[in-house]
Amino acid sequence: MYFLTGWPRRLLCPLRSEEEPFHVQPSSQRFYFALLSETQLSIWFSRPSVLIVSYIESAKAAAQFGFYQKAEWKPDDSMIAVATAKGYILLFDVLGGGDDKYLYEPVYPKGSPRVKVTPGYKEEQCAPALSLEMKKPVDLEAPITSLQSLREDLLVCTADGYLHVLHWDGLGSNGRKAICLTTIPFSLDLQSARGGPSLDLEGVYIRCMEYCVTLDGFAVVLSDGRLGFITPLSNTITTDLQGVWAADVTDGTCVAVNNKYRLMAFGCASGSVLVYMIDTTTGSMQLSHKLELTPKHYPDIYNKTGPVKLICWSPDYSVAMVTWECGGLSLWSVFGAHLICTLGEDFAYRSDDTKKDPLKISSMSWGAEGYHLWVLPYKPERRRQEEQQDVEMVEAPPSSLQAGILQFHFIKSALTVNPCTSNQEQVLLHGEDRLYLTCIDPSQIHSSSDAHPHAHIHPRDGSPMHHPPNPDSSLSQGLSTLLGHKHWHVVQIHSTYLESNWPIRFAAIDTAGQCMAVAGRRGFAHYSLFTRKWKLFGNITQEQNMTVTGGLAWWNDFVVVACYNFIDQQEQLRLYQRSSNLDNAFASVTKLHSDTLLLNVFRDMVILFRADCSICLYSIERRNDSPNPSASVELLQEVSMSRYIPHPALVVSVTLTSVRTETGITLKAPQQACMAESIMLNLAGQLIMLQRDRSGPQVRDKETPAVNKKLLPFCPPVVLAQCVENVWTTCRSNKKKRHLLEALWLSCGEAGMKVWLPLFPRDHRKPHSFLSRRIMLPFHINIYPLAVLFEDALVLGATNETVLYDGLQGSSEPLEALFPYCTVERTSQIYLHHILRQLLVRNLGEQALMLAQSCASLPYFPHVMELMVHVVLEEEATSREPIPDPLLPTVAKFITEFPLFLQTIVHCARKTEYALWNYLFAAVGNPKDLFEECLMAQDLDTAASYLIILQNMEVPAVSRQHATLLFNTALEQGKWDLCRHMIRFLKAIGSGEMETPPPTPTTQEPSSTGFEFFRNRSISLSQSADSVTTGKFNLQKTFSMPTGASAKGRDVECAENMYIDMMLWRHARHLLEQVRLRDLGCFSAQLGFELIGWLCRERNRVARVEDFVTALKRLHKDFLWPFPVIPVGSLSSPLKNGRCRTVLSTRLLKSQSADSLLNSDMDTASPPTAPTNHTWMDGLGQRAKDMDTASSAHSNQHSPQTHDAFLSLLTNKVEEYSVGSATDLTETSSVVDGDWMMVDENSSTLSLSQAELEHISMELANKGPHKSQVQLRYLLHVFMEAGCLEWCVVIGLILRDANVIKQVISFLDSPEVPPETVQSVRNGLLAVDTWASTDCLGYKPFLNLIQPQLQHLLDSASEQVQPESFQPVSQSSKLSGSEALGGAAVPRVEDSRGVSAPLGLALPSLEPAGGFPRPPSEDCPPEQTEEQGEEEGAYDCTLS
After folding, report:
1. In Å, how far are 559, 1016, 1413 from 1094, measured between CA atoms?
2. In angstroms, rounded to a whole number, what is the distance separating the alpha carbons of residues 692 and 678?
3. Cα–Cα distance for residue pair 1338/1122, rounded to 1 Å
4. CA angle at residue 691 from 689 to 695, to 5 degrees?
5. Which residues lie across from 683 on neighbouring strands?
6. Residue 760 and residue 504: Cα distance in Å, rounded?
7. Of all residues in the chain, what percent are helix, strand and coil, respectively (each to 5)?
8. Which 3 state secondary structure label does DSSP give 476?
């Protein structure tokens, strides 16, 4: 509503004086302020805030009259009355300054249009020169306690118990009248008044009094602390007075009345403010609510504030400012919502937590329109500071002799004075010179690049798109805009308009939040966020000849204005088009018969509330017949409300709505939800509804032509709610969210919010006759609501935040430095859980379910559910008395209707203390059952959360059993993060040290491209030239079982670790049996599983290959590896010309899956399409980093660490060279795009024969993604290490690497290889050969290439060789660009242009002590191969 902003401003008095001002009194329009000190009366102007004139009493007169005490202005600002200590009333005439009218004048630049102004124009923007003349004093012969101006009279209360009525003009003896308080009868209500006074008022006088226009009476505080209200029974104020008094209150100190809401706020010595209303039937005083600090928010000070010193209602009566004897300021809304208090938090404490003394206030007053609060600090405060200054020998500046006035700055909601519908869906605040909006920036609506900057990318990634956080950067009403930040879009009001029309009285924003309009003293101006420009009247005379009276609103792109025209001296309704110039020539003007007080727009209707208490409905229609679009306005209906409204000023807001109670009619036709069905009137806080009267004969719409369709009359009004500050309703409709869009939202001060919710029969069933059509549900909210987002189930608001600055400390710190710097931040709150809970309490579960289902798609719906469970749980589980009808079981049952039930319960439990868990799970079910439900629903993360609960509530055996279940499921689904947590969890259960769980073993975050094999393992490659020539690796390699360095702690926690290992082994065995090598690789890499050691043990068991062909097909599929295509040269086809062939092969290359074209009949076709954003060139940039790290040998001394390490590749110059050749090739092939005939052999940059080019393109088409290749090479290395020779053969086949096959077959000669392995390899290769001949001819060239080895194997069938079956590991990684690798023909020649050559692998002499063959060596690029001849190189591999 009202929010404090910035620091207070300090106004210093230019006069040298010892006296301190102690009383400030504003004039009726608040443009002038009278300040009193002991013998001085000063008048200040409001903008600029300057001293105009000061009257100083002579010493002789001061001795006669006594010091000044109070002041009061005459309503027309022409006189001031001052009360003095010795019972005199001094009257001063306030006179204009004659010739020199102005103290200050604005200076305009030359040629400014503002120089040629209308007569009398300057007076309104400059401080006028005034003078004060004292008239004859009036002696009342008793101390004066209160002054009150009343039309032509001045009421003065004196301490002898009299009430004097003086005329402002005729102050002779005839103009005076005195009423004795004892003659006024007081009773508890007007009905029981018997004649004589029922209160003993002997010796009692009126301490404080204020007149209330709308109640037509005086609120008084008597000297004995009683509270009363005196009302005249007849028309004249002075006769037949009757008083009522409030029972049980005897400590009143002061009073302030609220004319708009008919409330009287009485301050009490206890520190609380009692707000009373008058009961209209009995006339008694009834307590409406209290304004008091709560111990919850102000535990240190709530009962130490001292008596209330002053209460001040703001000029629009929407908030009250209160101060106490001990100091401090506190702001409440009219019905008690607490907004600000300076007795707590940063206001009361410095940054080092020392307490500040609260500022004591002697007088305060609101400035014009409530933008400022003028505060006079209490005298001793300043004296003490000045004494300190003297003690410190700091010379005080002259201005400190007369301390100044503090001016606090406020910004307020546009709803306070202009509660039109469009202001209710946007938060619009206005300060005296700027607007604060929460809406979005139209310039970004159409840009696609940053349409949702908050939604997809991390908001603080430093990219220019998100930095700085712009308050207006999302699509219209995107939730990220409304919730994502706390900043405002601030629009400065045009200074030219402000200069002459300050203060701004009305502001309005359109429903889209893109256009604003403001109206000050005269005219109005509007602003567009599209253009970022203000539009002002081009003709100043037109601006100065109108003043906005009833407010502003937007209708489409028209500003609707209710104004008074000074030239014609009549009230008008005007519509101005936004895009045309602001000029009366383009306005559509309708004359009105009476002053307009309020204006609102509903769809294409305007509703006006007028000073004669009538409501007028007008229809607006857009006319496009003229060159400038205009609107025509037509009167539809007039409704007189004078019977129900005692005073027009009491109407706070008027709204047309489509809301109705649906009596006598069921809502079958959805279009009826869009019609103007009822009028909502906020009458002094009472919400009154007038519905259309449908009781008469209903005429069908079809039968009557639209022209003479008469609008239905309205029924008598019904009161819907009390204490209403704001009302929200929408004219939009949405079938899915009817509950929210057809509801009526009310803000009720300290009582929170209320919603008047429609209840719909489910599935068009006949509604129950006993079920009402609507229900009013109250709920509390932590913010002050300013806007309701209907579809999003959100309330938007604003809140005051403070910033402390340390630099201002010191004993002589200025007064304003006592205050922190205040800012206003946006807030929002979800309310759905409150409503659902209220419906469940009232046994309306079906309605709650319909409402919740309509909102289930909201992003914070899970949070709503959690909140609901949490709030109910906290209340019921911590209640001291037993609850007869607990709500938690109902809430639990309700949540089970939604899929996020399991997750809601566990999140709520983990945010609640352990002591409440039993109560929670008694209502929702056993956590073991819920855990099992999570497993069945495959929701493993939620199941993991339940484990933590089980672990606290059950014995270790139970939690281990459930953890094992979850671990196995997570392994199966490849949830590696969860697996690592589970390993840690299981270890911790075993070791009993759950408080400090051990770190995750080899923790690794899953990378975006799948697992990385090479993160923690480095292979140093140094070429030794003599090995390949002999065809053997001269390396003694001992295999290290898990007894080395990596397993130091194994003996200690062997049982628990053995348990975990058993599960890991079982999973690995399962993967290998199902030929899921890629998953096995992932598993090993992510969980640090010692694959080689395990494979060594399983070499002759599960690590065998049963069916080579199936295994080969499975690998093709798993690694997205294309089946080979037959090179053109080997095809005896009539289409042997290169063009046709190569087009085909490049298409294959693009699809990365040859079998989709050539082998479409094969049963294991791999996925034909690669991701569109990856090409096979993508991998090239990475080439230097992650070339195929196929293999390396381990030196003996490093063997213990091998199983925990991961391969990482060290590059060498040869690889870089090979990257170059690949890049040349890719560029050429992409330029030519498959049409090789166009490349002339002689001029080709590559100087390749056509046959060679065809060959290379074939090779590229036959390669899988680069990542897969790296993974297969790694698996080859692992299986070689472990001696699983059958798997080595399979991987050698898929890579079509003759050296691998050659090496394995040479291994088979070793005596240690069991004969069944040799047999298996031989049979496997024969099976592959048979399969290739029939189903996959692409493998034939390669099989022909290894024919000698195959032959050797068949020949040596009699002697049993010693094979070792090896098993692969595979890696799940995203398909990335393929590299040309290895080849299908003779490696030395055909790979000369490829990227890398096949592995040259030699067999080590196998040691009996469990030594195993050396793994495949690093890929050796072909260029190097040619240069080195036969020196293919043994690699010394150190794994660290």
Report:
1. 80, 20, 16
2. 6
3. 10
4. 145
5. 651, 686
6. 44
7. 30, 25, 45
8. coil
Strand partners, 376: 363
Give the β-pairing of 372-377 and 361-366: antiparallel
Enumerate the β-bridge partners of residue 6.
822
CA distance 1027 to 1404: 10
Q: Convert the pLDDT of each residue in 1040-1069 to its tens digit.
A: 334 434 444 445 467 778 888 888 999 999
**Is-contact 1269 1295, C-beta < 8 A?**
yes
What single DSSP character describes residue 1399? Answer: P
Task: Tell me, letter by letter, the H, E, C secondary structure of 600-613.
Answer: EEECCEEEEEECCC
Position 1126 pLDDT exceeds 60: yes
Radius of gyration of the chain (CA): 45
**By CB neighbour count within 10 A (0-12 exposed, 13-18 middle, 19+ buried), where does 801 fall?**
middle
Residue 1297 tokens read as 């690497």
E strand or H helix that includes residue 758: strand 753-758
789 Cβ partners below 8 Å, 6+ apart?
425, 477, 482, 795, 796
Question: Tokens 């607007």 belong to which residue?
Answer: 435
Gap between the Cα atoms of 161 and 222, Å rounded: 10
Instruction: List the one residue out of 56, 57, 45 whose CA is nearest residue 11.
Output: 45
Angle of helix 956-973 versus helix 927-936 axis, rounded to 10: 10
Taking only the tens place, the pLDDT of each residue in 1165-1199 is 333 333 334 433 343 333 333 333 333 333 333 43
Tell me how far apart the alpha carbons of residues 950 and 1309 are, in angstroms, rounded to a whole number: 57
Q: Give the model's pLDDT for residue 238.
A: 64
Helix (H) or strand (E) holding 319: strand 319-324
CA 1328 from centroid of its chain's CA atoms: 61
Confidence of residue 100 (pLDDT cuts 50, 70, 90): low
Q: Which residues pair with 254 in a beta bridge?
A: 267
Paired residues of 73 in beta bridges: 80
Assigned token pair, 1342: 């390669």
The per-residue pLDDT for 439 is 62
Sheet holding 558-565, edge to edge: 546-555, 558-565, 570-577, 588-591
User: Contact 481/474 with Cβ under 8 angstroms?
Assistant: yes
876-885: list long-range contacts, CB under 8 Å, 24+ apart: 876/919, 877/915, 877/916, 877/919, 877/920, 878/916
In the structure encoding, which two tokens stand for residue 411, read together? 């910004």
The residue type found at 1 is M
Give the pLDDT mean for 1335-1352.
84
CA distance 890 to 876: 13
- Strands 176-180, 525-528: pairing is unpaired
Q: Please report how the helices 1285-1295 and 1315-1334 are oriented relative to each other, as an axis angle in degrees rounded to 10.
A: 20
State CA 86 to chain mean position distance: 62
